[in-house]
Design brief:
This protein folds into 2 domains: 116 residues, Response regulator (Rossmann fold); 194 residues, Rossmann fold. The protein is 38% helix and 16% strand. The protein has 11 helices and 14 strands. The strands form 3 sheets. The chain has a 6-stranded parallel beta sheet, with helices on both faces. Strands 7-6-10-11-12-14 form a 6-stranded mixed beta sheet, sandwiched between helices. A two-stranded antiparallel sheet has the order 8-9. Helix 2 runs parallel beside helix 10 and helix 3 runs parallel beside helix 4.
Length: 399
């Protein structure tokens, strides 16, 4: 028994030695790789961020006719709105309810640092001269007006006898367009009343930008009489004397109605009221009396849908175009201080509207004559459409 146990132990010892001899060899430790040196990151300075450009700001001050007069002020504001859409300007308007507000309203925009301040028309001329002198670094423009003005600007104030360096005027040869209207109106008056054809005129206030319509209207009528041997007459305005029919303002519709009734009572067949909204009641009178009417400043067809059946044409003063052009020029560094934008038939600054619904009533021969007259004025064949003969009733700086 002991021998067997001894033999078993010997066998175990032998197996242990064999296993030790057959064990795997020891593995060498691999030294860790040395880190590879890399260049330190280069710090770059971010490009400077340009601050957003300040918007070009335009302020517009109306006269007492208001922004919604559908004529004088509305047209100018439409030119500003076009610049908002196409040029990206910022714009605001201030409505003047009375003349004493002109200077404070202009000052409001100038004191706020507006780039360009636009004044709406003749009545603001004196106030603008004062404000422009106080803000010489601000650009100003005034529609339907230019300096010097010895009548609207007090003596001793800049603008009375000289131009204002930071003001650009905008004036229009409205007599050219009114000439065409007078010619076609004379021809149509004969159609309506062969025995005693007559045209009628009335204005809001007796100022050059209103009387110029009468000057051109009369000149066109007289040219028709000369060409056709007719005797159409004009009631309500006389270029030789400067006397005419005026309501005294641009807001009293009752006065506009009464003026039109007075003209038709005197036998006119076609009337033209120069004063924005005060001309609108006259179209009902024209319809009742079997006549026609003419609108001013803009094409009245879209503004007065109720008058389309008696609206012969419109004498257009395209102030929206001139306002836009002045804004664009000012933005581009081409502001013309002491200069004047002159709108005429050639550059589209003035014109007459289509006959629209009355196109069929206007004889083709008459329409062709009017178109030829338009070309003759543009080409210099006809040089005097009223204001050369009667400059006292027209704004300065036109011819």
């Amino acid at each position: 028994m002991q021998k067997k146990m001894y033999a078993a132990l010997s066998l175990l010892v032998l197996l242990a030695l064999m296993l030790g001899a057959c064990g795997g060899a020891a593995t060498e430790e691999v030294p860790p790789e040395e880190p590879v040196a890399t260049e330190a990151p280069v710090e770059t300075e971010a490009p400077p961020v340009e601050p957003p450009a300040e918007p070009f700001r335009v302020g517009f001050v109306t006269d007492t006719g208001g922004i919604d007069d559908r004529s004088f002020n509305t047209t100018q504001w439409n030119g500003v709105l076009r610049a908002v859409d196409e040029l990206g300007i910022e714009a605001q308007f201030i409505q003047s309810d009375e003349a004493t507000q002109y200077e404070p309203n202009l000052t409001e925009f100038a004191s706020q640092g507006y780039d360009l301040v636009i004044a709406s028309g003749f009545f603001l001329g004196g106030a603008l001269a004062n404000v422009a002198a106080q803000y010489p670094d601000t650009m100003f423009s005034i529609v339907d007006y230019s300096y010097p003005d010895p009548f609207g600007v007090p003596e001793g104030v800049i603008g009375n006898a000289e131009c204002v360096p930071n003001v650009q005027g905008q004036v229009y040869k409205t007599d050219q367009a009114a000439f065409l209207a007078g010619y076609v109106a004379a021809g149509m008056a004969i159609q309506l009343d062969p025995e005693g054809p007559a045209l009628g005129y009335f204005g809001g206030a007796k100022i050059p930008t209103v009387t110029i319509f009468g000057v051109g209207f009369q000149a066109g009528m007289e040219y028709y009489n000369q060409v056709h041997g007719t005797t159409v007459e004009l009631i309500g305005w006389d270029s030789a004397t400067g006397e005419g029919l005026f309501t005294g303002d641009f807001s009293d519709l009752t006065k506009g109605l009464e003026s039109t009734e007075s003209l038709f009572d005197e036998g006119v067949d076609i009337f033209m009221g120069v004063g924005g909204l005060i001309g609108s009641p006259g179209f009902d009178v024209a319809r009742e009396r079997g006549g026609y009417g003419i609108w001013v400043d803009v094409d009245g067809y879209n503004l007065l849908p109720e008058a389309r059946d008696v609206l012969l044409t419109s004498v257009m003063k395209n102030m929206d175009n001139s306002v836009f052009d002045v804004i664009q020029g000012s933005m581009e560094g081409a502001f013309d201080g002491c200069g004047v934008y002159v709108g005429d038939l050639a550059n589209g600054g003035v014109g007459i509207a289509s006959f629209h619904d009355l196109e069929g009533a206007v004889p083709a021969e008459l329409a062709a004559e009017v178109e030829q007259l338009r070309l003759d004025i543009i080409n210099g064949v006809i040089t005097d459409t009223g204001c050369i003969s009667y400059p006292d009733w027209c704004p300065g700086g036109l011819y």
